[in-house]
Structure formats: C-alpha cells, structure tokens
Amino acid sequence: MRTPRTAVLVPALLLSLAGPADARVKLAASTNDLASIAASVGGEQVEVFAIARPNADVHRVEVLPSYMVKVSRAQVYLKVGLGLDRWADGVIDGSRNRSLVIVDCSQGVGVLQRPTGRVDASMGDIHPDGNPHYWLDPRNGAVVARTVAEALAGVDPANGALYRSRAETFAKDAEARWRRGRERVAALPSKLLLTYHASWPYFAGAYGLEIAGTVEPVPGIPPTASHLAALTTIIRERKVPVLLQEPYFSAESGRFLGRETGIRLVEASPSCNGTRPGDYLAHLDELVETVAGTAR
Asked: pLDDT (tens digit, 9 = 90+) per residue, 73-110?
C-alpha cells in the first residue's frame, strides 16, 4: 500500500517550522537578574532560564539534578562571580556539558568593598574578591549587557552585531533610569537607611543613599543585643527612616528596632522576579520607589 503524500509532507513541514526555534542560543544564568539582562540582549535569538529563586538567598542554593539536566542543554552559563554563586560550579560539573561557555559577569565591574590584608572567619561571610551584589547598580547592568553580547557573538557570530546593538540600547536605557532614580532620591528629606545584610552598597551608591549601619554586625552573623542597642542609638540620633531587608532573613530584629525607634521595615529582594526583557531594570525602579515612598 502506498503511503499518502501528505503523510510525508506534514512531518517535513513540522520539521522546517521547528528549525528556527531549535536554533536559538540557550543560556543558563545563576540569577533572574542576569537572565533578564541576557533576554534583553539576546531577544528572539535566545532562550534563557535562571537557577536561583528570587526570594531565596542566592549565597546558598541546593544543587539539584534537575538543574544539571537543564544546564546540559545550554550553550552559555552566566555566573554572578566574586564568590557569590560557587554552587553553580556543582551544577556545571554535574551537567557534563563539555562545550558549555562559562561567563563571569563580574568582569569589567567596579567592585566595592574588596578586603585588604588577611581575611579570616572572624570577618563573617565576607567575599575576598569584593562585594558581589554589583547588579544593584544599573550602570553595572550595562557592563553585564556588553559582556553577554560578546559571549553571544562568540557562539552565534552571524548575529553578533545585533547582540552588540541591543546591549548599547540597554545601556542607554539603564543610564536614563539611573538618572531618574537619582533625581527621585535627591528630593527626599533623608537619604539614610539601615540594611540587614551587606547586599545594598551598590544600590545605595548608585542612587545617592547612605547606609547608616547594618543589622548583621558582620556578614552572615546575627545581631547581638549590644549591637541592636548601638543601632537604636544610631537610628534615633541620625533619624534613619528605613530598614531595607531581604525576605529570606528573620524579621525579628527589624521588628524590635521598629518598636524601639519607629524605623520602618521594608522587605525587598535584591533580585528581580522574572527573566523577561525589562524585568531587571523595572525591579531597580521599584526598589527606588519603595525606599523613596517609605523614607518620606
């Protein structure tokens, strides 16, 4: 019995339609922020996913087999670097993806709080290469966009000019939003804030805020009673209006400080919720507006 011609043509048509989707460059990223920047640069030519959940501590991510499987199908992996996502090495090794291009997105960034001299356990969960939360300054997001564009151009040279053009467009948008954010903060009666963890120096520096103290006496170490007492004095004397805290840390100390001084606790994640183009910059806008609205 002869096979109907349509039985041959339809699968062939499906294969031809599937070709462009299969040709997209697959990028894995440690965080939503890097993934969103990559989505802005890559456009329709890329498929992006992130590993860490935005409302969880990115320092501590459990390495799961499902992550390894997803990374085994990727062509590029975007790391935060500066020791923040060391767990990514376990995901990458477990993926057994020998052709994977690994990109340290911290390259080219002006790193803050790089320790000098000897680093030991008494300093807490300190990063020897400097503070790794650089994406909280949109100008560093522009640096990351250009780094991602070069990585994409390396694996997909035919679209290299397109990636570089999108990175420059992203950089201009980041610059404009940064300027608007600084203007918003400049109008505030107080530019002081307290933070829980040392996640926020890039954010504060970018927008003209001043961090008056941190709830953790050293990174990763919960506060003592004497440290909280010292913070209450700082808050009262300097009239600090806002405590900015990540959602994955205990709010007990923040509530205590609020009862004692009236400081307002704001919970906000350093990472954006989505991986779509625009999610990263929109999150920074929201952070500025949240702090500004609370600091009045």
From this structure: 999 999 999 999 999 999 999 999 999 999 999 999 99
**Tokens representing 134?**
């650089």
Looking at the DSSP assignment, which residues form a beta bridge with residue 242? 264
The CATH code for residues 186-295 is: 3.40.50.1980
pLDDT band of 17, cuts 50, 70, 90: very low
CA separation for the pair 49, 24 (Å, rounded):
13
In this prediction the pTM is: 0.89
CATH number of the domain located at residue range(s) 20-179 in this protein: 3.40.50.1980
For residue 271, how many C-alpha atoms fall within 13 Å in the half-sphere facing its CB?
A: 26
Residue length of the chain: 296
pLDDT at 23: 86
Kindly list the domain boundaries of the chain, sorted by start residue: 20-179, 186-295
> Closest by alpha carbon to 217, among 229, 230, 227?
227
- Which phi-psi region, left, alpha or beta, contains residue 130 (left: φ > 0; alpha: ψ -120 to 50)? left
118 secondary structure, DSSP code? -
